[in-house]
Amino acid sequence: MTAADATIASRPRVLPAWKRLLLSEYLVLVLTIFYFVVMWTIVPEIAAADTLLDILSAMMPLLVVAIGQTFVLIVAGIDLSAPSIIAMASVVGASVMTGDAGYANGSGVEILAGIVAFLAVGSVIGVFNGLCTTRFNMPSFIVTLTTMMFFSGAAIWYTTVHTDASSIGNLPRTFIEIGQGRIAGLPFSLGVVLVVAGIAHFILSRTVYGRWLYAVGLNPKAAAVSGVPVRNVIFWAFVISGVCAAISSILYTGRLETGTPVLGQRILLDVVGAAVIGGVSLFGGKGKILWTIFGVLFLTVIDKSLQLMGLPIASVFAIKGSIILAAAIIDATRHRLLVRG
Amino acid sequence: MTATTQAARDAAITAGRPLLKVEGLCKSFFGVEVLHKVGFSLQAGRVLGLVGENGSGKSTTMNIIGGVHQMDAGQIQFDGAVYRPKGPRDAARQGIAFIHQELNLFRNLSIAENLFITEFPKLVPGLPFIDRSAARKRAAELLAAVDLDLSPTTLVNKLSQGERQLVEIAKALGAKAKVIIFDEPTTSLTTRETDRLFDIINRLRAQGIAIIYISHILADVMRLCDNITVLRDGHVVGSALKSDMTIERMISMMVGRSIDQLFPPRDYAAPKGDPVLDVAGITQRGTVKDISFTLKAGEVLGISGLMGAGRSELARILFGIDPYSSGEIKIGGVAITAPTPSVCMDHGMAFLTEDRRAEGLMMEAAIDTNIALSSLQNYAGGLGGMIDRGRLAGDVQKMSTSVQISAKDIVRTLVKNLSGGNQQKVVIGKWLLRDPKVFILDEPTRGIDVGAKNEVYKIINSLAAGGAGILMISSELEELVGMCDRIMVMAHGEIRATYERGSFDREELLRAAMWDGIRSSSK
Asked: Quick check: A211 and B392 in contact, CB under 8 A?
């Protein structure tokens, strides 16, 4: 090594702009915008106000589930049961509110009762997941896989008990407005999601519980020795995930105007995928609400653009898969960059 | 060894053609130069001791030789040819074996499977069928070569730390290694296991294998090595034959100054305060039996003993991590009925664990996150338990300065990038932020360099002077003798003897620890 090399090596690095972008936490947002602009030239209607609103409304329920999932991912767990919570909560909530012999129909508080029913289903399943994971030391993958299977079936069974049809309709108009309504041109669900995201962000970044979540995800043993109630922290992450799935179910059910046992069936991979694309680590200890939002936005924009292009479903899946793969490769590259420096 | 054979050997070393010759090795990480023109050479059948403080560049040098990292500049000659390994496997194939501090064995596999994990003997060459009987036979030969009297089918998780090390050596022999690098091989070995390891190393030397031996235990280096090279801040500050080297000289080369007093003085005669920890009859089947003692404010109480004597187990019980079947614990005079870490912490206890990587730190998190972890609740309040981030950040910064963590930016620097000594200071800082009244330290200076040790000792002294009670577990007798007011010796889960300052006698302490000798130390 010559003397000149040595001075270069010891000089503080100024990264080129593209490297800084690659390392920025806004990378996924930038990629989304880039993709959007490219798509704009191919399918100009993607930038139409209606399409944009559509993207926004489609994002909302997915985002709430993904926010709940983020909590579980941060403690190095996974909640596969989210789709079945959405389905179960949907049919139970609908059965309480429906005009066709709903349990609370005509009581005057049917909407409130219905919403409570949604949230109750979400928290009960979340509590069950949390208890099994923490008290019996079971891997969350197995616990939530089994709850997913059980409640997917249970939701269908519950529907057949309640009605001859395959779903429970005739829901109160006011309830449907939660999923479909607009205030000042913006979806009402946007307000719900902003509140949920705001609370979630606050919990993660400003509270003791938030810091504990990261600690448990990074090193549960060290956390326990440092006085962190590790089991409780994990338990509540699953409850939060369950409640978020229930809130998402409210938005979905309102949007579809009916309680359906097959609701949310296909969203599981979108949820986990969105969080991971955003930068949340499957190994725990790493994640932010903002990242999850970017990930969900990314996936929703891709979905919408492929829909607009009118491609057959098979090619939609293949293209979506390739785009996610490309994003994952870029993400992996940036980690290598981080390590190498 | 007589003087003449030593002299003859020294002459041979000076004259012999080097098997491994490192010249002008440079390496930078993130623009920071960690190795600057490092050079040394090694002959077949010789042991080179490599010493230096943490962060001095020993591990980086070895990682380059072992193929883990690539050099920026320099040259390595190995066995008469230019050597530039593409990766660890390439290095192993060329005959360089690297036995890491954290052993790289698969615990759920058998010894034989571990020995051949990269290259199983095949039934038919080129086809992926393992020749199991050949593997077992070859494994048995390799185990015999390292005096390990175990069946090759034994699972590795059944082995002690020392036995696992021997399996690693057998693995190196199996790969026909010409150079074997040992990184801190004795930190978790008992005295007997260490002796056995040294016998094996001497045998390898006699077979013409070259050894690079990295250690903080300078007495071991003096005992084992033919040549000693000292590194400091990425530079070679000295290379010499053992006969020209002394421990004092190594230390002063390592630190660049002479540490006149490794153990800083404290006023041992100062009157002790009220009891801060009362332990009466603590028993847990299989680990500890009828442990009773009292720790007073301002006192440093040491616990000595061999590995497996129940010292760490006792500490874990006292801090509420592991259960106990009978006995009573009082912290600050208050009986603790159902101890958990958070209950013990609320009563003013703190616990520095033996294994800082696994249980002390979040390696992937920044320094400030780690220091804050156990004190978060003291900074939360108001709506939804919101953390007062400004006050927390200020106190964490102050703490990091007061325990002298050397890092520019405690918010950005990840703990995994710190040296062992600095990592330990992070753990200590985490607990000091709670201002503990009882501080249990389990091997507080394990694997950290002399300078950092001295700083840890100073922190312990100032805590004791400030009225905290310190319970200090250590495997280094010197350290206990240098630091403690009293030393308890544990063996087989019991307290065998207690000595007051003034009547510390190293031999007697050791005898108490091994009083029924062979059986306890073979664990």
From this structure: no
Q: Which CATH number does the domain B3-95+178-255 belong to among 3.10.20.810, 3.40.50.920, 3.40.50.300, 3.30.43.10? A: 3.40.50.300
- Residue A33 falls within a domain, yes or no? no
Contact B387 A207 (CB under 8 A): yes
Phi–psi pair at A80, nearest 5 degrees: -80, -10
Contacts of B364 in chain A (CB under 8 A): 218, 285-286
List Cβ neighbours of A76 (8 Å cut-off, separation of 6 or more): A216, A217, A220, A282, A283, A284, A285
The answer to whether residue A242 is domain-embedded is yes
pLDDT in tens, A114-132: 999 999 999 999 999 999 9
Indicate if the pLDDT at residue A333 is higher than 50. yes
Q: Report yes or no on A142 lying in a domain.
A: yes
Q: What angle do CA B48, B444, B437 make, to 5 degrees?
A: 170
d(CA B269, CA B407): 37
pLDDT tens by residue, B128-157:
777 778 888 888 888 988 888 888 888 988
- Quick check: do B3-95+178-255 and B273-348+438-523 share a fold? yes
* pTM of the predicted model as reported, rounded to 2 decimal places: 0.76
Q: Is the Cβ pair A341, B31 closer than 8 Å?
A: yes
Tokens found for residue B360:
């002390």
Which CATH superfamily is B273-348+438-523 part of?
A: P-loop containing nucleotide triphosphate hydrolases (3.40.50.300)
Which residues in B lie closer than 8 A to residue A224 (C-beta atoms)?
Answer: 321, 341
What Rg, from alpha-carbon coordinates, does chain A have?
A: 22
- Facing A222 at nearest CB: one of B26, B360, B376: B360
Residue (of B514, B511, B454) closest to B479 by Cα position: B454
Is A341 an 8 Å CB contact of chain B? yes
Domains in chain B: boundaries: 3-95+178-255, 105-175, 273-348+438-523, 358-435
What tens digit of pLDDT does each residue of A223-249 get? 999 999 999 999 999 999 999 999 999
Q: Give a yes or no: residue A161 inside a domain.
A: yes
Which range of residues forms the domain containing residue A96?
55-265+279-287
C-alpha distance across the termini of chain B, in Å: 31
d(CA A87, CA B132): 52
Alpha-carbon A63 to chain mean position: 4
Query: Helix, strand or coil for residue B39?
Result: strand
Element housing B410 (H / E): none
Q: What is the pLDDT of residues A57-80, one digit of tens each?
A: 888 999 999 999 999 999 999 999
For B362, the closest of A202, A203, A222 (CB atoms) is A222
Cα distances from A11 to residues A14, A65, A330, B12, B415, in angstroms, run 9, 46, 28, 45, 23
Question: What's the structural domain count of chain A?
Answer: 1
ipTM confidence: 0.83
Could you tell me if A259 and A90 are in contact, meaning their C-beta atoms sit under 8 angstroms apart? yes
Average pLDDT, chain B: 86
